Write the structure tokens for this entry.
Amino acid sequence: MNSALKKVVAENGLGGLEFLCSIPGSLGGMLRSNAGCFGSDLSTVLKKATVINGKGDIFEADCKDFNFGYRHSDFPADWIVLEVCLQFEKKDAQEVRKQIQANDEYRQTHQPQGIRTAGSTFKNPEGYRAWELIKNSGGADMVVGGARMSAQHCNFLQADNTATAADIEKLGRNIIAAVKEKTGVDLEWEIKIIGQE
Ligand SMILES: Cc1cc2nc3c(=O)[nH]c(=O)nc-3n(C[C@H](O)[C@H](O)[C@H](O)COP(=O)(O)OP(=O)(O)OC[C@H]3O[C@@H](n4cnc5c(N)ncnc54)[C@H](O)[C@@H]3O)c2cc1C
């Protein structure tokens, strides 16, 4: 849950932004990955972004150039988001608060809590749900060192305190291969891998 955002959205009755409050992270990170849930993503509510580029120039960027897609943007690698301007519909604060609570409750009952995870591990391929593909291909039961998929939601990769980055990547690669073999579908990482094994 995103406590800072939740406070602003709930207290000011900023309808339409409730979904963002349950995504952990900053608005800059959300813009780069076009983060989303509950049928919306950042691009659906983004009006403007103020950025600084690699040369230190600060300006208002044209958001059309970001080419947003599912958990994707072409936001340039050497730009940093300084500010975003989001579109909302003014609503009763109590109503907005209730929607935020309902979203939080959904996550608490459907997604693992209190584990070491980066959230959804693979993108949902068009027409499929990643967790179903993983379950039906035996990926839900795979373990590599300290890495496994959550028993509660098998698209959440769970790392115990012995897991190495190599365990996590290997488990992911094994799952991608199992899903491809069983269903012919290519799973794509949703989490971003930094560095090399
Ligand atoms: C339990 C859990 C649940 C999650 N649920 C969701 C979900 O429902 N939907 C979803 O989309 N994601 C989800 N995530 C993933 C994550 O919360 C989002 O991707 C979030 O947007 C990451 O934001 P961050 O600020 O932590 O970015 P980071 O992880 O720190 O960075 C992500 C990328 O954004 C870049 N970045 C960060 N800040 C800026 C900035 N100011 N300007 C430019 N680039 C920047 C970084 O360089 C990096 O490339 C979940 C993660 C967890 C752990």
Remarks:
- The chain has two domains: 3-110, 113-197.
- The two ends are 31 Å apart (CA to CA).
- The chain has a mean pLDDT of 95.
- Helices lie at 3-12, 27-33, 93-110, 130-136, 165-183.
